[in-house]
Fold:
Amino acid sequence: MTLPAGLVDFLEDVPTALDLVGKAEDDPAADRFRVPIYPDDGEANEEYWRWMGTELDESRAADRSAFATVLESAEEGVVVSLGEANGILRVLVEIRLALAARLGVEVEEDYADLDHTDAVVLDTLAELQLLLLQAIGS
Amino acid sequence: MNHSAMTMPEAPVVTPDTDERTDTDLTWKVVVWNDPVNLFDYVIWVLMELFGHSKDKAERLTSQIHHEGRAIVNDGPREQAEMDCYRLHRQGLWATLEK
Structure:
């Protein structure tokens, strides 16, 4: 898969952008990255995230680091393993989730209210995700 | 210490009430919820990858998520269910647990 240079430039900022999730006060993306697994039991939920939160953060950080490494070689062409491809998928999903949350997309109908540029960004990332899925599946 | 003069009281025998079940005995359901971001084909792929579901089953579950808002994608003891949720969250899906 060959990525257009402009897309690579955009993607190179993704890991840093994701590292900033939750750093700003009331970042809606932060809530999306910490879904309550026990919606009716705050105590159990807190305990779960106390144990699993760090592990999930570290996994995400590892994915972003691997993503950045892949992009460094993107212009020359790079072959990735299935595990690495899944990691790239996870990063693409994360950035789409973060962007959508910050743009106020809560239901599918909200996409119709997006600014054209924002919609193009989300759509392009979705297309890239689908291309990668197809490559993994083939 | 004179052991011959000591008799240990019998330990009480406790028979668990058969209606009592520990939390670990309960089967927890892993629920995936619809969200406006995750792609249909991606959710299918995740369900196949994480749970070994057939493509047919993964498609049915994903369709249920999309049309009904949620679907139970797996179940098991609490610890396993929590790990399932962790793996789903790692893939960006919205997952919760219920008894």
About this structure: The interface with chain A takes residues 36-39, 41-42, 45, 49, 82, 85-86, 89-92, 94-97 of chain B (CB under 8 Å). The helical segments of chain B are 40-51, 55-68, 78-90.
